[in-house]
Amino acid sequence: MSKGKILVTGGTGFIGSHTTVELQNAGYEVVIIDNLSNSNADVVDGIERITGIRPVFVEGDCTDIDTLHRLFKENPGITGIINFAASKAVGESVQKPILYYRNNLNILLNLLDLMPVYGVKGFVFSSSCTVYGEPDQNPITEAAPTKKATSPYGATKQICEGIIADVVRSGSPIKAILLRYFNPIGAHPTAEIGELPNGVPQNLVPFLTQTAMGIRKELSVFGNDYNTPDGSCIRDFINVVDLAKAHVAALDRMLEDKSDEALEVFNIGTGEGLSVLQLIDAFQRATGVEVPHKIVGRREGDIEQIWADPKRANEVLGWHAETSIEDTMRSAWKWQQRLRERGIM
Ligand code: WQD
């Protein structure tokens, strides 16, 4: 029996596609809306190959409220929304702030506006550990203060969190959960879906796997003079399938009324910090493939070290990160190899 119908905005993207798979595995029906600005429709085939179920796919833009009205009318009975649709490149956001504020805020406002109209009860928002800025101490809990955003992208995450809080406080008949992701990496173990960056990757793992494949000559490690054991930055790298499962737990919690709180926030990370150099080492150990790399200067705006205290998610959501970093690295490599087989990269 179906657990209900969920709208996944940005559902053909990296995290959205993995979450759609886990929702379907858990017994939810999924309707995806995506404007394909940073993904393509073949992803729906990948999801179907993994789960045996083809989600409903609507190509459209959530900034357009008429498109959303149509979607809700054509797919009655949606009880929850997971909002992945957003512009997400930190560097680009500095160049095009208006695009970032327009997209990320309008998408959110439209969805929140329509939830009561169509009787949608639960809302999961993709937030980011970027809202914490440079932590005063690690691991960081949800109670830590948020700090001034260092990019328009980060600012949109903070503003969106605030908008959701205001809407819930206003008495809107909805529940919301904010998930603050740390650094999502890896791919589905089947390599049917994964991350498909546009152009030269800005994030560490896609650049690393492309270098291992010979597409890039060398990985630049941005700084080895930080105040960390090996001098490189430290992050909490969370496997994307584990991350996807956190969304299912969040929806279950809201839709099954397991909490009296209308708004909750959870860190979604492993609880362990790994340095950039340790991550490269883990990849090489897990795959046996060498990654040519060199140390270069620091990248502007980087946080020195941050990792999650995921205790709340562990205890309240009953969710835990499960996948080892080695398995995650193997999944990322298998995906990169699949892209090569398909002649994509
Ligand atoms: C990780 C570490 C780099 C590339 C940002 C956003 C976050 C999320 C993911 C959304 C850093 C180092 C990187 C490279 C390197 N956004 N690095 N060489 O900056 O932690 O997080 O992206 O979608 O909200 O803030 O992730 O993967 O870019 O960097 O040495 O070629 O790897 O300096 O220390 P980051 P990242």
Helix content: 40-55%
Rg result: 19 Å
For the largest sheet, list the strands in their spatial order. Answer: 3-2-1-4-5-6-11
What general form does the structure show? Answer: globular
| Record field, number of beta strands | 13
What's the CATH C level of the largest domain?
A: Alpha Beta
Major pleated sheet = 7 strands, parallel
Distance between the first and last residues' Cα: 40 Å
Mean pLDDT: 97
Low-pLDDT stretches? none
Whole-number total of structural domains: 2
The succession of helices and strands, N to C, reads: EHEHEHEHHEHEEHEEEHEEHEHH
Gross CATH architecture of the largest domain: 3-Layer(aba) Sandwich
Counted by DSSP, the helix tally is 11
Q: What is the name of the CATH superfamily of the largest domain?
A: NAD(P)-binding Rossmann-like Domain
Bound compounds, each kind once, are:
UDP-4-deoxy-4-formamido-beta-L-arabinopyranose
Structural class estimated from helices and strands: alpha/beta
* CATH topology category name of the largest domain: Rossmann fold
Explain this structure to me?
- The chain has 345 residues and is α/β, with parallel strands linked by helices.
- It has eleven helices and 13 strands.
- The protein has two domains: 5-186 and 237-269, 3-Layer(aba) Sandwich (Rossmann fold), CATH 3.40.50.720; 204-233 and 272-313 and 324-339, UDP-galactose 4-epimerase, domain 1.
- It has helices at 14-25, 42-51, 65-74, 90-95, 97-117, 152-169, 204-213, 240-255, 276-287, 311-317, 325-341; strands spanning 5-9, 29-34, 56-59, 78-83, 122-128, 175-181, 183-185, 219-222, 234-235, 237-239, 263-268, 274-275, 293-296.
- α6 links the parallel β5 and β6.
- The longest helix has 21 residues, at 97-117.
- The protein is globular.
- The mean pLDDT is 97.
- UDP-4-deoxy-4-formamido-beta-L-arabinopyranose is lined by residues 88, 90, 128, 130, 183, 202-204, 207, 219-222, 233, 235, 276, 299, 302.
